[in-house]
Write a structure and sequence with these properties.
Elements lengths: L39 H20 L5 H23 L4 H28 L10 H11 L29 H8 L3 H33 L2 H15 L23 E5 L9 E5 L8 E3 L2
Antiparallel strand pairs: 1-2, 2-3
């Protein structure tokens, strides 16, 4: 998959409804963050959350623990995608972890819907069931586009208008809120499968980007190194983690240390801040 077409690549500084930012006068961030409203995974998870609230109000006793757990699982799926996107500017590992939490929350919710059908002896639609095909076809319509199984579609990276969102709960509303229990539950199950597919792709892209470009710490250290090369009179500050080189063994920032014994006693060297788990060192020169 082309990294430029990954879900993670679609980011915007106006994702939270804030006023436009003049980029010419704003400092450039080392890594983009936010823009979660443009992520396909977030859009579909929001539909799932709205649909789950409506489903539980119809079919699950509001006083039961299951009602609360299903709503919270659906909410967790959406919220962790947003939080991970926000955290991406300073921590790749945090973003990957939170997207993984979102994926796990939707898996938990999927099991709840499957339990609902099984315990009431209602059929679970397979992917080739005519109704499942209908749900996927609804998601492929340009105004909805919740099913992104065809990743060659160039519309993936087209700008979206607030008046015409890329995804909407509206086409599914009648099936969820007025359909029989079997239709309502299976419709949401189809949506969860779509969201899980998107999250799997998103995690693959995040992991590939981390392996190829490193995390925020490595990128910050490299940016500082290039700055020092271009500005040789700008001396490194050993108390500033961004000024330290990256450990050659684990990639963590290093700290300036002084040898206490041996033939180089009293001399300074770079030692990994992850010591004693890592024994990586660099000479100060």
């Amino acid at each position: 998959m082309n990294p430029k077409k990954s879900d993670r690549s679609v980011r915007s500084n106006q994702s939270d409804g804030s006023p436009p930012v003049d980029r010419s006068s704003s400092p450039r961030m080392l890594r983009a963050s936010g823009g979660y409203r443009n992520l396909r995974s977030f859009q579909v998870s929001e539909i799932i959350y709205d649909a789950t609230v409506a489903f539980c109000d119809r079919f699950i006793n509001p006083r039961s623990r299951t009602h609360d757990q299903m709503v919270q699982a659906a909410r967790s799926g959406r919220q962790n995608i947003a939080e991970g996107s926000r955290a991406s500017g300073t921590s790749s590992q945090t973003e990957i972890r939170l997207v993984g939490v979102a994926r796990a929350s939707l898996d938990e919710l999927l099991l709840d819907y499957e339990d609902f059908l099984r315990q009431r002896r209602l059929p679970l639609w397979g992917k080739d069931h005519p109704q499942s095909r209908r749900i996927r076809a609804m998601g492929r319509q340009p105004q909805h586009q919740t099913d992104r199984s065809d990743q060659t579609d160039p519309s993936d990276n087209l700008p979206r208008s607030d008046n015409h969102p890329a995804t909407s709960y509206d086409p599914y509303r009648e099936l969820v809120e007025k359909g029989p229990p079997e239709t309502s539950a299976n419709t949401i199950i189809c949506l969860i499968h779509q969201a899980n597919y998107l999250l799997d792709r998103q995690l693959q892209a995040l992991e590939r980007d981390f392996i190829q470009a490193g995390g925020y710490t490595e990128q910050l250290a490299e940016a500082r190194r290039k700055h020092r090369v271009a500005n040789p009179t700008d001396q490194a500050d050993p108390t500033d983690p961004s000024d330290s080189p990256a450990c050659p063994k684990c990639g963590h920032p290093m700290a300036l240390r002084t040898a206490r014994k041996g033939p180089r006693a009293g001399s300074q060297f770079w030692g990994c801040q992850n010591y004693p788990d890592c024994h990586g060192t660099r000479s100060k020169e």
